[in-house]
Input
Amino acid sequence: MASPLSAAGAYAAISRLANGIGGNPAGEGTSTTSFSSVLKEALTAVSETGKKSDAQSQSLVNGKANMVEVVTAVAETEVAIDAVVAVRDKVISAYEEIMKMPI
Output
């Protein structure tokens, strides 16, 4: 089960992306942030979280990490992957709805 701290971190990351941190803020003039760039950044973050989890697991095997750190890293990765799967499901659902529309 994911911790509230990892969920809060995931929501904060999504909020920063949605508000245009690092680019134009959302709603101000023309925004250069596209859906594909937001998606790319989110997938990169998930990949980095997975790499962190792998590194923690390897450290545990080598006796250099404790179990709490490993479980926390794995839970954060699980939350991130669940978020990506939820977005994927919504995109597929939206595509299916668009395909049902009459021309």
About this structure: Helices lie at 4-18, 35-61, 67-100. The chain has a mean pLDDT of 80. The two ends are 45 Å apart (CA to CA).
